[in-house]
Amino acid sequence: MMKTIMKLLLFLSSVLWVSAQVLHEDLGITGCSDFDGEEMYALDGEELWYADFKNHKGVEPQPSFIDHISYPEGAYEAAVAQQQVCRSNLKTVREALKNPPVKKDAPSSPMIYPEESVEVGVSNTLICHVSGFYPAPVNVSWTKNNQDVTSESSINVPYPNKDGTFTQISRLVFTPQLGDIYSCSVKHLALTEPLTRTWDVEDQTPQPGIGPSVFCGVGLTLGLLGVAAGTFFLIKGNECS
């Protein structure tokens, strides 16, 4: 994977239609390197379709809250053909610019957080959000209690930011148990060492009974203060009469 990201990437992205009021933004990306490639389409920041060149198919990772949009048969084959055009263009650019050095922007510190509120024993998803890097992609690995669980995770295709950098999100389905500690580590050619963030199940799980106990304790204290204040004013009133 590191060999892949160390190769020059050529990304061609375009805004296909934007109204004067920016009602919708339609995005298409074609990218390639010597060993990797990307073809992706999105609408208003949501991925609609991308070519999975490893599994040789098109994928429609659309969220459930939008009307599903199906891409025509042959879309994946067209993406494969487009990769040949992309690599031909990449070769031309390299020769014309005499293999210029690749711009390198390191990703910001990754964010790791659960998709849903944490409940012990209830299936959830951990998200590792990585942004601000160039070129794409990054390599994200996961551990559970220092054991590698990367094979159980998934990662989206690189998504372009408006500043020319990229964002990728890796997901790990897990069942929280007290004592478990997870981590995600990010590798990128602009980094000298991986960026790692950890996530502790126990730190995220509400402790039963603490909230009501504190509330009752505060209520009792305020009640006692109220009785004391009432007694004080009663005594003062008797002294004045």
UniProtKB/TrEMBL annotation:
Keywords of this entry: Adaptive immunity, Disulfide bond, Glycoprotein, Immunity, Immunoglobulin domain, Membrane, MHC II, Signal, Transmembrane, Transmembrane helix
Q: Which domain of life is it from?
A: Eukaryota
Query: What is the predominant subcellular site recorded for this chain?
Result: membrane
The signal peptide annotation in the UniProt record is 1-20
Q: Which GO BP terms apply?
A: adaptive immune response; antigen processing and presentation of peptide or polysaccharide antigen via MHC class II
Q: Which residues form the Ig-like domain?
A: 107-196
* InterPro entries (UniProt xref): Ig-like_dom, Ig-like_dom_sf, Ig-like_fold, Ig/MHC_CS, Ig_C1-set, MHC/Immunoglobulin, MHC_I/II-like_Ag-recog, MHC_II_a/b_N
Q: Which family does it belong to?
A: Belongs to the MHC class II family.
Q: Tell me the membrane topology, using the record's own terms.
A: Single-pass type I membrane protein
GO-annotated cellular components: MHC class II protein complex
Q: What is this protein called?
A: MHC class II alpha
- Spans traversing the lipid bilayer: 210-235
Q: Where in the cell is it found?
A: Membrane
